[in-house]
Design goal:
alpha+beta, Rossmann fold, six-stranded antiparallel sheet, 23 strands
Length: about 450
């Protein structure tokens, strides 16, 4: 999947290092490792635990991490604890005012917040704030959340007490890290829809959306933040509060299909292995007589490897990917999208000429990108192109921070599999089935509402 794609909203990163350490470079490297989760804006907030109370320094901007920060800026940002964020907008537009962290001062001090996901009852919370005379010109649920935490903090003994009170009222899928000048507090929604992990490097604690960010700063993965768990990190170490934990879980299946980096471990599952198992399931359910198996870079490659292993058909790379065009490079018209596909992917003609090809991708959203890719393969001399998708058809929108379009924009909600096959120009088309998730992810409890319309919240 390339340009008519599904987007994650963002990635979050938090770090607590011993007093006197400098956290800015670690946050930078952590955000670089999470860049795939959002390319519209980046930011970080830092505090020195031995510095003036309430002093939080923040910098954020539009663009990629390495466009927002440079070496000089990182050297000048003081602090041994901090939070960082990369963003792709779902609620709120692609504007600097919506970039995170959300940093605020209030009567008892200051805080900075980074947030991944959507608070589905944010509108109700904002109405309550207005009723209490605390109306704000908020543009995102992240900002609503920050104001609500401040409101509770004024009445609470500690920042973690305020976060617990607010979290008990939230509905949706979210992973948040809140920084006060002396503490980090992390919270994951009770269903575990959004991922959040904890790591450690010597005496430094790290919290991030994915384990790959912990690896990037030389840390070791300890475990996932449990769904509903609230973690507080201070100079004394980690404290856990499981008041909001519950029996029912609903982990986002699309983390394993597409969002997460292939080298990440989420809820104990290596993403690369999960995608290989999805490819195996595809081959078992949807065999085809062909000469080679290939995948659309990058997220289709592991599933293609699994399909090849299960089917006995050789795997080969059929595309060169231009890595300097990011996921967010989206063009508004079909003509411009086609040019963009050619800029991002180029077919290795000698590999595909006169071949019957099984083409693996993670999803079909509107169908335009897949049509262009198949046209490119045929122009390069491919005899047949059989499309296999390592996810079921997208039929329903997502309300938890994933940018799934409305049902009317999802090709599978308006057309049969045969209609889609004809529209994209494939010789055959098959999808992974919902029942195959068990082969892919075992007994992990999943949110798969975009496929079956069963929303956990």
């Amino acid at each position: 999947m390339s340009f008519d794609e599904i987007h994650e909203e963002c990635g979050v990163f938090g770090i607590y290092s011993p007093a006197g350490a400098k956290a800015s470079r670690d946050i930078y490297y952590g955000l670089m490792a999470l860049q795939h989760r959002g390319q519209e804006s980046a930011g970080m907030s830092l505090s020195d635990t031995e510095g003036p109370k309430g002093n939080i320094v923040t910098h954020k901007g539009m663009g990629l991490v390495n466009e927002v920060f440079d070496k000089k800026m990182l050297e000048e940002m003081p602090g041994n604890i901090g939070v960082g964020h990369v963003r792709y907008s779902t609620t709120g537009g692609s504007l600097l005012e919506n970039a995170q962290p959300i940093a605020m001062n209030y009567i008892k001090g200051s805080l900075a917040l980074v947030h991944n996901g959507n608070i589905v009852n944010a509108g109700e919370i904002k109405e309550q704030q207005m009723y209490r005379g605390q109306a704000h010109f908020t543009t995102s649920d992240s900002e609503v959340l920050a104001y609500e935490i401040i409101s509770e903090r004024i009445k609470s003994e500690s920042i973690e007490e305020a976060v617990i009170r607010v979290a008990s009222t939230l509905k949706g899928g979210y992973a948040c890290i809140i920084m006060s000048p002396r503490k980090l507090v992390a919270v994951r929604d009770p269903f575990g829809i959004k991922p959040l992990v904890i790591g450690k490097r010597d005496e430094t604690y790290i919290i991030a959306s994915e384990s790959t960010a912990i690896d990037a700063v030389g840390g070791e993965l300890i475990r996932d933040v449990r769904p509903g768990e609230i973690i507080t990190v201070t100079e004394d170490g980690i404290l856990s509060n499981e008041t909001l934990c519950q029996a029912r879980k609903a982990h986002c299946v699309f983390e394993y299909i597409y969002f997460a980096r292939t080298d990440s471990v989420i809820d104990g599952i290596l993403v690369h292995e999960a995608r290989i198992r999805a490819g195996r399931a595809l081959a078992e359910r949807n065999p085809v007589d062909a000469d080679m198996v290939t995948g659309v870079p990058d997220s289709g490659l592991a599933a293609a490897e699994g399909y090849a292993k299960a089917s006995g058909i050789p795997f080969a790379l059929a595309f060169h990917k231009n890595s300097y065009i990011g996921r967010s490079f989206i063009k508004p018209t079909d003509e411009e999208r086609q040019s963009a596909v050619h800029m991002k992917l180029n077919v290795l003609k000698d590999v595909v000429k006169d071949k019957r090809i099984v083409l693996i991708d993670d999803s079909i959203v509107r169908g335009t990108t897949m049509r262009y890719i198949i046209e490119m393969l045929r122009q390069a001399g491919a005899k047949e192109v059989h499309v296999r998708i390592s996810a079921p058809p997208f039929l329903y929108p997502c309300y938890y921070g994933t940018d799934v379009p409305s049902s009317g924009q999802l090709i599978a909600s308006e057309h049969s599999d045969e209609d889609i096959r004809k529209k994209i120009g494939a010789d055959s088309l098959s999808y992974l089935q919902i029942d195959d998730f068990r082969k892919m992810l075992g007994d992990l409890e999943l949110c798969k509402a975009c496929f079956d319309n069963r929303y956990p919240v």
